[in-house]
C-alpha cells in the first residue's frame, strides 16, 4: 500500500489506433456533437418561450434535453480533442470526475425516461384526471427525484472506487474513463467492486425496464377499447418515447449488465450511446411532433430577428 495511487496520469488507448482513421472520426463526430448541442438546445429554448408547450410532457422533454447536453459534454469534447492528439492523457482526478458525472447524468436520464413513460400512462389511461395527477408540483418533484437518484448512484460508484490503490500500468483500454476499464489498473483484486458496480447498474436497469414495460403494457390493454383513430393518436404520442428508450437502454445494457471484456465492439457500442444517441433524441421527438416543430421554427425566427 506504500505505492497506493502513485499513478497520477492515465493514458487512453482511444477508439482506433490508426491516425488517419482518427482524423476521419474527428471530422464525423465533431458535427454530431455540435448537432447534439443545437438540437437539444432548440428544444430547451422552444419549450421555455412557447405558449403552447407548457404541458408536463414538454416539461419532461426539456429536462431530458438538458441532461443530454450535460451527459454528452462530460465525455464527447475530451474524446474529440483526443482524436487529434498523439498521446491521449487524463489525470486520475480528472478520470474520477468524468466517471462521477457520466454516471450521474446517465442515471438521471434513465429515471427521466421512466417518468416520461408514467406521464404517457396517466395521459392515455386517466385523461380526465391528468392535470390533477401531473400537477406542476408533482412534475417538479419527479424531475428532482431523478436528479437525486443520479446523485445517489454516482456517489455509490465513486465511494467504492476512490479507496482502490492504482499503482500501474497507467493505460486505459478505452476512449473515456469508466469503472470497469479503470478497475483493471488497480493493484488489488476488484472482483467485489466490479460485482457491486454491475449489480447497482443492473438493478437500476431492470427496475426501470420493468416499470417501462408495465406502463406500456397497461397502455396497450387500455387502447383495445378505443376507436382506431384513438389508438392511432395514442400510439403516435408514445412512439417517440419508445424509440428513445430502445436507443438508450439496449447499448447501455450491453455494456453494464454483463461481465467486462476488452472487445473492440464494447467501444463501438459506447460510441453509440455517448455520441450518437444524444443527437438522435431531439430528432426523434421533433419529427413526429407538429407542435414541437412549429415551436422550434418560431424560436428560430425570433433568434434571427
Task: Give a verbal description of the structure.
With about 300 residues, this protein is mainly alpha-helical. It contains 10 helices and 3 strands. It has a 3-stranded mixed β-sheet. It is globular.
Which key phrases capture this entry?
Rhopdopsin 7-helix transmembrane proteins; three-stranded mixed beta sheet; receptor; 305 residues; single chain; membrane; G-protein coupled receptor; mainly alpha; GPCR_Rhodpsn
Give the second-level CATH assignment, the architecture.
Up-down Bundle
User: What is the number of helical segments per DSSP (H or I, 4+ residues)?
Assistant: 10
Sequence stretches where pLDDT stays below 50 over 5 or more residues: none
Shape: globular
Q: How many separate domains make up the residues?
A: 1
In angstroms, what separates the terminal alpha carbons?
A: 63 Å
CATH superfamily: Rhodopsin 7-helix transmembrane proteins
Question: Secondary-structure element order, as H and E?
Answer: EHHEHHHEHHHHH
Radius of gyration: 21 Å
Measured by DSSP, the beta-strand proportion falls in: under 5%
CATH C-level name: Mainly Alpha
Protein name: Olfactory receptor
Keywords: Cell membrane, G-protein coupled receptor, Membrane, Olfaction, Receptor, Sensory transduction, Transducer, Transmembrane, Transmembrane helix
Subcellular location: Cell membrane; Membrane
Pfam family, one: 7tm_4
Question: Can you summarize this structure?
Answer:
With 305 residues, this protein is mostly helical. It is 74% helix and 3% strand.
Helix-strand layout with pairing:
Layout: E1 9-12, H1 19-49, H2 56-82, E2 88-91, H3 92-125, H4 130-133, H5 136-159, E3 171-172, H6 179-183, H7 191-223, H8 228-256, H9 264-287, H10 290-304
Parallel strand pairs: 1-3
Antiparallel strand pairs: 1-2
Helix pairs in contact: 1-2, 1-9, 1-10, 2-3, 2-9, 3-5, 3-7, 3-8, 7-8, 8-9
Protein name: Olfactory receptor
Membrane topology: Multi-pass membrane protein
Keywords: Cell membrane, G-protein coupled receptor, Membrane, Olfaction, Receptor, Sensory transduction, Transducer, Transmembrane, Transmembrane helix
